[in-house]
Amino acid sequence: MKPYVSVVTPTFNRLGSLERLLEALAKQTYPPTDFEVVVVDDGSTDGTVERVRGLALPYPLRILAQPHGGPARARNLGVEQARGTLIVFLDDDVVPFPDLIAAHVAIHEVDPDVVVVGPMSPPRDWSRPAWIRWEEEKLQLQYQAMLEGQYSCTWRQFYTGNASLSRAEFLAAGGFDPEFERAEDVELGYRLAIRGARFVFDPRADVLHYPARSFESWCRTPYQYGYYDVVMHRDKGYTTMFLASQEFYDRNLLNRFAARLCVGRPILLEGAVFGLARLARAAERLGARRVAASTLSGIFNLLYWQGVCDALGGAEHVWRSVAASGAVRA
Fold it and tell me: Are strands 115-117 and 199-201 parallel, antiparallel or unpaired?
């Protein structure tokens, strides 16, 4: 018997992209009688609730509203109210291919306990800034590595822009931690892994991803990842900082030098990020995309380790942690 599916989508002031997602879900090959869509409005001020309530779509659609509290709280509310036995998480800035839900369901029919991660593919019909393209390229490298068997899909790839799992397993794991403003999906993925979950990457469960993010917003991402990696390690006993510290040694020599020079020194850090950002924009204008990508990697690396530094309370703690993991690695 096919499972009844609940698609859960949090949204905040993205009415246009949300409507695009809902329209794409109306074209799914999976029967509209066998799935519902639960949208959780996270305190939008753009008329999202009123507009969604007025839409006529072939599948059941519900919109829930909460005061602005972040995507973790929104997804938790959506799953709590969901009627499906299978939850498919989609972000409001994706456009699913017609067989997306069917692809997620096909794997769960074979193994109901698996956690499925689908790709978020770059569209070809829009122009995006260099930092968005950098993000896309990094994701594609991960997908290709998993497809080639270089490593398996794990909790570290549990991105809820496009993922599915059983509702019962989600609830048993305790849902998302609402204290996390970033990396709440990876944090939940870690708890699922502790419970024995098996993660599977399926390229057939595909969506197109249209992220609308300013450069300033993009810069907050690595900082928050670094900060919350420390929180997961220090407060929850996860291996996140051990893994990140070991991977520091895989960065190129220039990125490692810049991090040791600038992290914990606000004036140097601000100057380095400003200079690299100008270089990235200039390289982009000249069509030197490889140079732009390299400078953006440098910015990401610096801001990640600054997040680690602020969470740990100083640069000396950062490099002590890195040195300790390097000794284990050696």
Answer: parallel
pLDDT tens digits along 281-324: 999 999 999 999 999 999 999 999 999 999 999 999 999 888 88
CB 95 within 8 A of CB 20: yes
Would you put residue 19 in left (φ > 0), alpha (ψ -120 to 50) or beta?
alpha
What are the distances in angstroms from CA 92 to CA 13, 15, 17, 304, 312? 10, 9, 6, 26, 33
Q: CB of 166 within 8 A of CB of 108?
A: yes
Walk me through the domains of the chain, giving residue ranges and CATH numbers: 5-209 (3.90.550.10), 215-329 (no CATH)
Radius of gyration of the chain (CA): 20
Return phi, psi of residue 12, to 5°: -150, 105
Q: Is pTM beyond 0.90 here?
A: yes
